[in-house]
Design a protein that fits this description.
The chain is mainly α and 170 residues long. It is built from six helices and no strands. 74% of the residues lie in helices and 0% in strands. It is elongated and about 75 Å long. The protein binds heme C.
């Protein structure tokens, strides 16, 4: 009976510690960033995403023209790959919806980091193939890869981006 009591006390202590650690981790994540810092990181991330989209649209415009300017296409494809690789640093802890910043990033990004990472890696993988196709001046492959890349954008947005936000561009 005594050991049963002790076990319960231990369990209660363990539970208490778990709760305290979780609360501390949560506080730390937020304490690490002031509201101004969260806001400026979110705005920076959104500007990066828009720049990312512009590079892809520019590439699309070039690929759709009768005679693509491959030198120009290469610049956008390289910029695009650099952005795709950089995306890992755009989602700092403390820049989610609970930060109070105007973000469409959903909290699942931080709750399911592995799933989010797979999306980022898929983007880098498809973008590397896109760059290879542009380097090879292979129009059919470049168009195919352009579409494959766009699909990754959509897949990630469907999972991790709130849809209620009004788009800045049509
Ligand atoms: C790994 C996930 C992921 C991938 C891949 C991804 N995005 Fe995003 N994107 C997001 C999230 C999350 C947001 C919301 C960011 C926010 O509001 O803080 C976003 C926001 C945006 C925005 C809106 C920015 C604004 O002004 O608020 C644009 C445009 C955008 N993404 C374009 C793209 C394009 C184009 C691609 C593909 C080349 C892409 N994204 C790939 C997750 C992703």
């Amino acid at each position: 009976m005594g050991s049963g009591k002790r076990k319960t006390a231990l369990e209660a202590a363990a539970l208490f510690l778990t709760v305290v650690f979780a609360a501390t981790a949560e506080r730390k994540a937020h304490a690490a960033l002031s509201p101004e810092e969260s806001r400026s990181l979110v705005e920076g991330r959104q500007a990066h995403m828009r720049e990312h989209a512009v590079a892809l649209y520019n590439l699309q415009r070039i690929l759709k023209s009768g005679e693509p300017n491959w030198a120009e296409a290469l610049i956008y494809a390289q910029q695009f790959l650099a952005n795709s690789r950089d995306m890992a640093s755009w989602f700092a802890t403390g820049t989610g919806p609970s930060s109070g910043a105007a973000t469409a990033a959903q909290s699942d990004i931080w709750r399911q980091p592995e799933k989010f990472r797979r999306n980022r890696e898929a983007l880098v993988g498809e973008t590397e193939k896109l760059l290879a196709a542009v380097r090879a001046r292979d129009l059919a492959a470049a168009k195919r890869q352009h579409n494959a890349t766009l699909e990754v954008c959509d897949t990630c947005h469907a999972q991790f981006r709130a849809q209620h936000r009004v788009e800045a561009l049509p």
